[in-house]
Each structure stands twice: as C-alpha cells, then as structure tokens.
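sry for the spam today, last one i promise. struct tokens for design, 216 residues
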C-alpha cells in the first residue's frame, strides 16, 4: 500500500488537504494526517501544508520535533509544499519582523507592501492577495500535466517567495508585480496557492502528485 503523509504541526486546513488527496489518489493509497516523525519518514510521499504566520509555523515545527523530518522528507521522497509549506522552505521571511526558516533553498519571503496597483486600471490592490488568480507555467513539470496554461488557482497570502536561484521557478502569478507562485527541484514541488481549494486544476495537481515518482 502506498502512503501519503500530510504533516500535522497544528497549522493549516489539514482535513481539506487530506480529503482532497483521498479523493484523487489511486485505489489502495493511504492518506495519513500525522505529527509523528516516524510516520512522516515511512511514507512514500509527503505533503507539507500550512497557513498563518512564518514565525508560528517555525515554532510549531520545533514544538512537534518536525524540522528535521521535513528536511529529510524533502531530500528523500516526492514532497509537496503548500502555501506556508512553500514559504518556509527558503532561508528567511520578512514576516513577524524577520523569521529564520528551514533553509532548503536560498531565498527570502517578502511582503507585498501596501501600495500595489493594477497596472491596467491603476486600481489599488488589497493585501492579503485573496481569491482566484492565474498561474503561468514557466516550464514543464509532471505536476502540471493535464493543467492548462494560465489556469486559475485560489490564493490567500500577504507575502511571496523570492528565490535566489531562478531555475527553481516553475510558476509565476501577477498581482501588482510578478511573483513566484511555484518552485520545483528534483523530488520537491511547492506552490503558493491552495490546490485543495482550487477546483479542477487543483485536484489535478494533487492527482499528479499522488502518482509522481519524484523525477522532474
């Protein structure tokens, strides 16, 4: 039996993520919501979801003893980061007056600011960036299979990831500026939006992950 572990560190809409994975995964797949290191590291695939603030995320990972488990899972098996589970993969977040993150990839998480405007209408854009927006696929990846270019996904965030290595970028989105909305390298794929809330496109991405072998 194949197992997908959804990491539970007390933050994020874990049940929605797990139910969406169960809905699209092949028959015989076990989807396990867990905060136990052994169960995370014994799983075939790992989903690292999250929402809220970077500082709270890092504190919670420390409280549950999951920081090294996340690092090891991201190094050894198909790994999907969602929303905050994408942002804390880099070195540092500007949120909460500055928060050190997991440091798997070089880069920072930056605040959108309070003076964003639509380039066409001049209308001031609200922060957080909340609602449906397009994701432009910057390069091919197995998790994009069957998802049309510029499909719409559901976002809720005030900070965006700014990776140092632009080769990581597999998806971008426009919201007053063009920001990185998906990254990938080797067995890791991470996305800023919430695929579990993103209707057909999001479910297809989760379905692709459920059978992905971790190869780009």
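last one done:
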């Amino acid at each position: 039996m194949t197992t997908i572990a959804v990491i539970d560190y007390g933050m994020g809409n874990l049940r929605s993520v797990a139910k969406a994975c169960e809905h699209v995964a092949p028959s015989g797949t076990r989807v396990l919501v867990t905060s136990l290191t052994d169960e995370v590291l014994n799983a075939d695939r790992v989903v690292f979801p999250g929402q809220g603030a970077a500082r709270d995320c890092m504190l919670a990972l420390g409280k549950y003893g999951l920081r090294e488990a996340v690092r090891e899972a991201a190094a050894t098996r198909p790994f999907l980061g969602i929303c905050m589970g994408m942002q804390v993969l880099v070195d540092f977040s500007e949120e909460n007056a500055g928060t050190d993150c997991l440091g798997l990839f070089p880069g920072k998480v930056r605040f959108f600011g309070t003076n964003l405007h639509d380039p066409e209408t001049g209308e001031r854009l609200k922060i957080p960036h909340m609602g449906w927006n397009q994701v432009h696929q910057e390069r091919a990846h197995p998790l994009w299979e069957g998802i049309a270019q510029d499909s719409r996904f559901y976002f809720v965030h005030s900070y965006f990831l700014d990776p140092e290595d632009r080769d990581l970028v597999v998806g971008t989105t426009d919201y007053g500026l063009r920001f990185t909305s998906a990254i990938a390298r080797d067995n890791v794929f991470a996305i800023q939006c919430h695929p579990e809330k993103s209707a057909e496109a999001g479910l297809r991405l989760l379905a692709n992950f459920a059978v992905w072998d971790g190869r780009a």
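The chain is about 25% helix and 30% strand. ok im logging off now
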